[in-house]
Amino acid sequence: MDLLKILAMFGSGSVFIIVIELIRRGRLKERYSLLWLCASALLLLLSLSRGVLEYLSHALGVYYPPSLLFLLAFLFLLLITLHFSVVLSGLSEKNKKLAQELALLRQELQAALNAQGGRAAERRPER
Amino acid sequence: MTILIIVPAYNEEKSLPGVVQDLRKHAAYADVLVVDDGSCDATARIAAELGVTVLRLPFNLGIGGAMQAGYLYADRQGYDIAVQFDGDGQHKAEEIEKLLQPIVSGSADMAAGSRFLTPGGYQAPLSRKMGMLIFSFLLSRILGTRVTDTTSGFRAANRRVIEYFARFYPEDYPEVETLVLLHKKGDRIIEVPVMMRERAEGRSSITATRSVYYMVKVILAVLVDLFKK
After folding, report:
1. Does any CB of chain A come closer than 8 Å to the CB of residue B45?
2. SS3 breakdown of chain B: % helix, strand, coil, rounded to 5?
3. Closest chain A residue to the Cα of B66, Cα to Cα
4. Of A78, B54, B123, B199, which has the maximum CB count within 10 A?
5. Is A89 on the interface with B (CB under 8 A)?
6. CATH of residue B124
7. Which of A52 and B56 is assigned the larger pLDDT?
8. What is the tens place of the pLDDT at every residue in A12-58?
9. Would the CB atoms of A104 and B53 count as touching at under 8 Å?
10. Which among B203, B157, B195 has a CA at the least distance from the CA of B178?
């Protein structure tokens, strides 16, 4: 077994373990965990056996096997950033809704306090 | 008919008292709502001291988010008409009636005040004028009627539009986009000639360097709106 293979196994193995550990500690939502698990498992598989990549690239007609690896990695990263943009858009929309809802509730509270009689002025929260 | 005047304000502590006074004097028939868009200054406190209703956003949402908060309030309180009125003092309260007329008579769903319909009216700096001309050309094509002042934030909307805006309102530079959205929805938009002041305090949110970026972005947003759903 050559040094490169050991290093590759060590690298992808640690990614796999980090992902599992993050899930175990609840730092990574289950929604994303499957994606990262699959990615790191694939990485591990490719580092274990050089034949898999060579077989795949031969079947697809890619002359230089590592470039298939780059292509897959690039596509994966592209898709995941796109996915994050979608998630971010959704979150910022929800964030906006929450802020507006908070402002409306604040106003309702203030109005209720005012109706109770003048105490609102003292209660006005400091920014 | 109940009327709400929505005044979006971001760091407008200096101009707000004048704006509220103006509204009290010339538009006493309407309720005033100040939307404090996460200001760092005393905008919210001053508005409260002036005795108007205040919505205090916990952080800066930008004009779109702030305006929508106002429409949400108008929707829930059941107002018949909502008027957008800038917090920087460039709009005149005595002009509001001109906006209200087509809404009250039912001849339009939204009325937008235009600075350019009156001769000798507002003169914009050249760089901005170019942009405004391009928008006006584009919007006139899309809407099928002449629109002269697409970026005017001085508007009145009826119940139908209030309900729609409470659910959906564009975020970054909403004035141009809302025209397209309402047109797509089949609402009637009318332009009304109004006079406006030069702003007393603060500067336009659109600086010269940003105006090109602004234009590209708005045109893109308008095209996206046209192709949406």
Report:
1. yes
2. 45, 15, 40
3. A100
4. B54
5. no
6. 3.90.550.10
7. B56
8. 889 889 988 988 888 887 777 788 888 888 888 888 888 888 898 99
9. no
10. B157
